[in-house]
């Protein structure tokens, strides 16, 4: 059985480029809620703006920080160093690298 759509529903999903530019924030909020849009220029449809399939899975702040730590690598010391101790080690290494 074919699905019917009212003209009001079509009007809510058609978005002109100008309207999208002026109200991008509200359209992106609606997109995050799962609503799709058809972007038009004049009377010509240009494309669709649809949410990603797994866009609703948002990481927590703690998970984001852990992922950044894992991906960024960084220094791995056997003991914890204060910033002053780390600076002194780096200064010594820098002095050793300088030509004499």
Describe the structure.
This protein is of the alpha+beta class and 100 residues long. The chain has a domain at 7-49: YefM-like fold (3-Layer(aba) Sandwich). Helix content is 49%, strand content 14%. It has five helices and three strands; from the N terminus they run αβααββαα. Strands 1-2-3 form a three-stranded mixed β-sheet. β2 and β3 form a beta hairpin. It is elongated and about 75 Å long. The mean pLDDT is 79. This is Antitoxin.
Write a concise keyword list for the protein shown above.
Antitoxin; 100 residues; alpha+beta; 3-stranded mixed sheet; 3 strands
Give me the strand/helix succession: HEHHEEHH
Oligomeric state of the chains? single chain
Largest sheet: 3 strands, mixed
In CATH terms, what is the fold-level topology of the domain at 7-49?
YefM-like fold
Any guess at the CATH architecture of the domain at 7-49?
Answer: 3-Layer(aba) Sandwich
What structural category arises from helix and sheet content?
alpha+beta
How far apart the termini lie comes to 86 Å
Strand content: 5-15%
> What's the total number of strands?
3
The CATH class assignment of the domain at 7-49 is: Alpha Beta
Organism: Candidatus Gottesmanbacteria bacterium RIFCSPHIGHO2_01_FULL_46_14
Protein name: Antitoxin
